Amino acid sequence: MARKLIVPDGIPNDPGGQPDSRRGKALELGFFGWNIRGGMTMSKATLRNNDRERDYWKWSNSRNLIEQAEYIGYDYQVPFARWLGSGGDIDFNGASLDFLTTAAATAPITENMGVFSTCHITFRFHPLHIAKIGASIDHISNGRWGLNIVTGYQAQEMAAFGMEHIDHDVAYDMAEEFTVLLKHLWTEPEPFDFEGKYYQSYGAVVKPGPTRSPRPILMNAGMSDRGVLFGARNVDWLFTVGLTVPELRAKVDRAHSLAESFGRSIRAATMCWVVAEATDELAAEKFAELQSEIDREALLGYARQLGGMEMYKDRDVDALSQDPYAGLGKEFYEGYSHGFMSPQLVGSPETIAEKLRELNQEGGAESILTCFLDPQKGLHAMQDDIFPILEKMGLRG
Ligand SMILES: Cc1cc2nc3c(=O)[nH]c(=O)nc-3n(C[C@H](O)[C@H](O)[C@H](O)COP(=O)(O)O)c2cc1C
């Protein structure tokens, strides 16, 4: 019998439907950036507390963090996937555990939390690589694996793979085709053929298929219009970031209505950077210390790498490097160095719980990724002080 031939036609397509991932909590929480040097904190102050604030990614530390996150009830973990760091005295993000090993390693030491991988699809992976490896991790984790699909915005990382820079929107066209083939690889029971513009596959079949039905959860965090369009058409969880709660709400509402217009649904999510101390005053002191020691070279390195992102492509980092804010403006300089422009949750447990409530109830984020200055201290604060408040608010019951 002739094999089934699939030719992508640009129409959103979810063979078998979309997976349901709701856990019955108003607010789901993810543990982010635990696998990488410095996480989302670009301050030389972290060097004084290296094991706690910078090199917690080493497996001897990070496996304890993952076990702790699971124990206290975190819903999922997401690594931050980078191939090159940004330099500076802190060697920002210059060492990390990779996106697949982290999921495979965290699967057997957890039982409940979702374990995600982040794949830069443009870096010459074929969907069959990711479909096969992902189905295996889904099998090992008993259906808890998921994939964050990113296109890769760094010319430097593309060069490291021996590639010319790929145009931003073309990368999203590739991502659409990649995702369509991935979904078919996870749901077609028999070998099939696929003929796309960017990807072809003849006679592939993935066995065992994924454990979660109909397939693993897919997420995306594209910030540009094209990125959000990709997310609404293809994935199940869409991450977006707003500096204010109304800005987040507007983006979340837009993502939902876009997905609906394609006959799909997405779950909206966001991320934040957390510095938890006993009181607001202590947290403000810690924050001031971090800000007074921003690693300018690391930040400039990162800003150069962001040149591939739509919204930062016109910034001339080098021409303005004498400027106190390196030509990036105060908001960017301070916002990127601590939390990559996501909300900075700095304060007492009460303050942090209230900000999480706002992002969830008013901002519309069903799910929030938290990245800590000091993940060990942060997880303890979550367990002892913040979760009890969130429970009283009825958000984690
Ligand atoms: C929650 C979250 C997680 C992300 N994780 C990664 C990551 O691990 N690796 C990466 O290269 N980009 C990551 N990004 C960046 C985005 O996926 C995306 O590439 C970037 O925002 C540019 O999107 P755009 O090209 O649509 O503007 C993340 C963004 C967010 C908000």
Report on the structure:
The protein has a single domain, classed as TIM Barrel (Alpha-Beta Barrel), CATH 3.20.20.30. Helices cover 39% and strands 15% of the residues. It has 13 helices and 12 strands. The strands form 2 sheets. The protein has an 8-stranded parallel barrel, surrounded by 7 helices. Strands 1-6-7 form a 3-stranded mixed β-sheet, with no helix packed on it. The longest helix is centred in the middle third of the chain and has 20 residues. The termini are far apart. 48% of the residues are buried. Bound molecules: flavin mononucleotide.
Overall pLDDT score: 94
Percent of residues in beta strands:
15-25%
Bound small molecules, deduplicated: flavin mononucleotide
The domain count comes to 1
Number of strands: 12
Over all CA atoms, what is the radius of gyration? 21 Å
Give the name of the CATH architecture.
Answer: Alpha-Beta Barrel
How far apart the termini lie comes to 52 Å
CATH hierarchy, class: Alpha Beta
CATH superfamily: Luciferase-like domain
Low-confidence stretches: none
The best one-word shape is globular
- The number of helices is 13
SSE class: alpha/beta
Helix content: 25-40%
Major sheet: order of its strands?
A: 2-3-4-5-8-9-10-12
Keywords: Flavoprotein, FMN, Monooxygenase, Oxidoreductase, Plasmid
InterPro entries: Luciferase-like_dom, Luciferase-like_sf, SsuD_RutA_monooxygenase
Domain Luciferase-like: 58-365
Region (Disordered): 1-22
